[in-house]
Design goal:
alpha/beta, Leucine Aminopeptidase, subunit E, domain 1, Aminopeptidase, 2 domains, 14 helices, 20 strands, elongated, binds ligand BES, binds manganese (II) ion, binds zinc ion
């Protein structure tokens, strides 16, 4: 889908040739003399439209408007969150009407979070999964114009939003693929393809190489599967080679049956989404490739299946991790931490400025936070704050969780340095405490996206979270920050 940002007042927008026009109407709306604002003004006066998000009114062949369909949509205070809700509702309602060309008019006082929200919400609401349908009825929407009063003022935010939306969509597409398609091998191939199109470096290691490095914990999870494991290393270089990178680590379990500690069969299909962390890292790299911010980023993706088999790892088995620590595997279903711990140790070799791992790690995190906020655990205060802020700005929020030493108590083992599970209580924190043992040498944060990476029920599907958060976070570090007018050139002289 093509997005463009255009300077268009309401009078000019009314003349735009398109299949539908969405006009966002905020609380501060004052009708002018043009056809669109007259329409909105009259509708408000008659009580047929309120400037609240979720309130909509459709008109057909309104006089003075070139678009046959006009959708007036309330957007409250015009904040990112309200614009998101309004655009989701509007684009959602136009979804099946065969619209190819759409114009969305933001309120006159729209700020950059509104631009970002409009782009991402349009992409989100119009996405259609077709990869494994025999009669693919795909996305109809081809071209979307975001109309604002001053396009130049919003250009940076717009480009960032468009790249983030592409990254989110890519992560959704990978996440939604069935587990017989999205194998570790396929993820490796996707990473290579991504590297080729976007000028990234990429290395994909197989079982032999991973064994040679000594990732005994990762190998143990993979050993019960017919699918060979992959360890993906992606590198984006946007700054001097000597500059310490941010390392992103994504859990890439392409199917989590639980292994010998097998899961109940109810909803087990949803464990194809257990590579959501990996998908979000790939999606973020796609956005980096498009935006080319001034920083270095390394992506690490340990990927395998977790399956029951005669060769599977068993409860009670003890393995040697890359860090040298031995691990007693008491529950083979706590496999995410077993593949992540070796990747976290591997991350040390890059002397990172910060490491952020992203994982659909615990059912307990779903219980704690549901599908609204991802769980954030961090050993470093400024890293935590940056991720919290990025989540709010990108409307992809997370919530800080604790890491008190007492939570590590339950991970004690009589036979190894550490056990891979503790009690059920505080399960998301126990898992984070396990990971923290392997992330002591750099500022570290962990995002538990078990509740946010996908939706269940009728809307079952990957969300692409937390690509929005990660892109925002990285742009904040990489000089392509969207807020600062100083970055856009001549306006400010001294720093
Ligand atoms: N992939 C799951 C976590 C998960 C479960 C995500 C349900 C979303 C919904 C993870 O590998 C897992 O199975 N975790 C166990 C850990 C337990 C055995 C300590 C869990 O959460 O039950
Ligand atoms: Mn599991
Ligand atoms: Zn899992």
């Amino acid at each position: 889908m093509d997005f463009e940002l255009k300077t268009l007042g309401l009078a000019a927008a009314a003349g735009e040739k398109c299949d539908a026009l969405v006009m966002l109407v905020g609380e501060s709306f004052k009708p002018g003399k043009d056809a669109l604002s007259k329409l909105a003004g009259e509708a408000i006066k008659a009580g047929d439209l309120e400037p609240k998000p979720g309130k909509m009114l459709q008109a057909y062949r309104a006089s003075g408007v070139a678009a046959p369909r006009v959708l007036l949509a309330g957007c409250g205070d015009g904040s990112g969150k309200r614009v998101q809700a309004a655009v989701q509702a509007a684009v959602g309602s136009l979804r099946t009407s065969g619209i190819k060309r759409l114009v969305i008019c933001l309120p006159g006082d729209a700020e950059e979070d509104a631009v970002r929200a409009a782009v991402c919400a349009t992409a989100e609401a119009s996405y259609v999964y077709v990869a494994t349908k025999s009669k693919p009825e795909g996305r109809e929407l081809k071209r979307v114009t975001i109309a604002v009063r001053d396009a130049r003022a919003h250009e940076t935010a717009f480009h960032a939003a468009r790249a983030a939306a592409n990254g989110i969509e890519y992560a959704r597409e990978l996440g939604n693929l069935p587990p017989n398609h999205a194998t570790p091998t396929r993820l490796g191939d996707e990473a290579r393809k991504l590297a080729k199109t976007h000028g990234l470096q990429c290395e994909v290691l197989g079982p032999k190489e991973v064994a040679k490095i000594g990732m005994g914990s990762f190998l143990a999870v993979a050993q019960g599967s017919e699918q060979p494991l992959r360890f993906i290393v992606l590198k984006y270089q946007g700054a001097a080679a000597g500059e310490a990178p941010v390392v992103l680590v994504g859990k890439g379990i392409t199917f989590d049956s639980g292994g010998i500690s097998i899961k109940p069969s109810q909803d087990m299909d949803e464990m194809k989404f257990d590579m959501g962390g990996a998908a979000s890292v790939l999606g973020t790299f796609r956005a980096l490739g498009e935006l080319r911010p001034a920083l270095n980023v390394v992506g690490l993706i340990p990927s395998c299946e977790n399956m029951p088999d005669g060769r599977s790892v068993k409860p009670g088995d003890i393995v040697s991790s890359l860090s040298g620590q031995t691990i007693e595997i008491l529950n083979t279903d706590a496999e995410g931490r077993l593949i992540l711990c070796d990747a976290l140790t591997y991350a040390q070799r890059f002397k990172p400025a910060a490491v952020v791992d992203v994982a659909t790690l615990t059912g307990a995190c779903v219980v704690a936070l549901g599908g609204v906020r991802s769980g954030l655990f961090a050993s470093d205060e400024s890293l935590a704050q940056a991720l919290l802020d990025a989540g709010e700005a990108a409307l992809d929020p997370c919530w800080r969780m604790p890491l008190d030493e007492e939570y590590a108590e339950g991970l004690k083992s009589n036979f190894a340095d550490v056990a891979n599970v503790a009690g059920r209580a505080g399960g998301a924190v126990n898992a984070a405490k396990f990971l923290q043992r392997f992330a002591a040498d750099y500022p570290w944060a962990h995002l538990d996206i078990a509740g946010t990476a996908w939706k269940s029920g009728g809307a079952k599907g990957a969300t692409g979270r937390p690509v929005g958060l990660l892109v925002q976070f990285l742009l904040g570090r990489g000089g392509l920050a969207t807020e600062k007018p100083a970055r856009r050139g001549a306006k400010r002289k001294s720093a």
